[in-house]
Design a protein that fits this description.
Helix content is 89%, strand content 0%. It is built from two helices and no strands.
Length: 44
Amino acid sequence: MIWTIIGILLLAWIIGFLFEIAGGLIHILLIIALVVFIARMIRN
């Protein structure tokens, strides 16, 4: 599940770079996803 979310966010991030649509929001979401991913890896 977490890998699907990360994949979707990465895809949205790349699309944001190409078309410059909501770039700031996508960056923030990607950072949040990265923090959540790292926190889950540390807990396990």
